[in-house]
Amino acid sequence: MNRDLFFSIGADVPFNRVSPKYGLKEVLASMTLLVPLLIAGLVFAIIFNSEAPWLHLIWIAVLVYGIISTIIILRQARAIGYAEREDDLLVRRGIMFHRATVVPYGRLQFVDVDAGPIDRMFGLATVKLHTASAATDATIPGLPRAEADRLRDSLAGLGQANLAGL
User: Fold this and answer.
1) Hey, which bits of the chain come out as E strands?
2) What distances in angstroms separate CA 103 from CA 32, 114, 166, one per listed residue?
3) pLDDT of residue 121
4) CA 29 to CA 20: how far, in whole Å?
5) 27-34 contacts: CB < 8 A, separation 24 or more?
6) What is the pLDDT of residue 12?
7) Which of the chain's ends, N or C, has fewer CB atoms near its CB within 10 Å?
8) How far is Cα 92 from Cα 99, in angstroms, rounded to an integer?
9) How confident is the model at residue 52 (pLDDT cuts 50, 70, 90)?
10) In angstroms, rounded to a whole number, what is the distance separating the alpha carbons of residues 69 and 99?
11) Partners of 131 in the beta sheet?
12) What is the side-by-side order of every strand in the sheet holding 81-84?
């Protein structure tokens, strides 16, 4: 999808962004693997410094990867947005590969709000929209719990009203 089309789909509607806590949560989740790798790389580099000084490259590579992935994760979190329009919900995401999903209210079958243990620690939830077609199902991660509940109730009501009008 070209950039102009991506931004013209919802140009007339302001997008709501997800919570900034969502980016922090995703960074912490990715660090659960990177921090032990970084520590292991440092330990091996210190222990075997005289025999294999190239081992320092391992922890340096893990550190650089961690920094780059943190920047990407935070930018991806800021790129997620949703807009409630008159007849549909528009969900957008992506910094390099843009994706916009339009979900007509009349096609909604049900709306879920999920919150795992880490999400609950941060006060976040994910809204999942289910339609008759699995390809059009959309999710909005990283919403504050109160906003996720409000959006679920609003979408469920609009879905029933538009379904009854078909």
Assistant:
1) 16-17, 81-84, 88-93, 99-104, 108-114, 124-131, 138-144
2) 34, 19, 15
3) 94
4) 15
5) 27/70, 27/73, 27/74, 28/118, 29/118, 30/66, 30/69, 30/70, 30/73, 31/66, 34/62, 34/65, 34/66, 34/69
6) 66
7) C
8) 6
9) confident
10) 20
11) 108
12) 16-17, 81-84, 88-93, 99-104
Give 116's DSSP letter: -
**Mean pLDDT, residues 110-121 taken together:** 92
Which DSSP letter does residue 41 get? Answer: H
Q: Quickly list DSSP for 146-160.
A: HHHHHHHHHHHHHHH
Residue 54 to residue 40: CA distance in whole angstroms: 14
Which pTM was predicted?
0.80
For residues 35-72, one letter each, b for 16 or more C-beta atoms within 10 angstroms of the residue's C-beta and e for the rest, the string is eebbeebbeebeeeeeeeeebeebbeebeeebeeebee
Asked which of 37-51, 55-69, 148-162 is least confident by mean pLDDT, the reply is 148-162
Q: What is the C-alpha separation between 30 and 118, in angstroms, rounded?
A: 13
Cβ atoms within 10 Å of 2's Cβ, excluding its own: 8
Amino acid symbol at 91: V
Question: What single letter denotes the amino acid at residue 73?
Answer: I
Chain centroid, CA 71 distance in Å: 14
Q: Which amino acid is at 92?
A: R
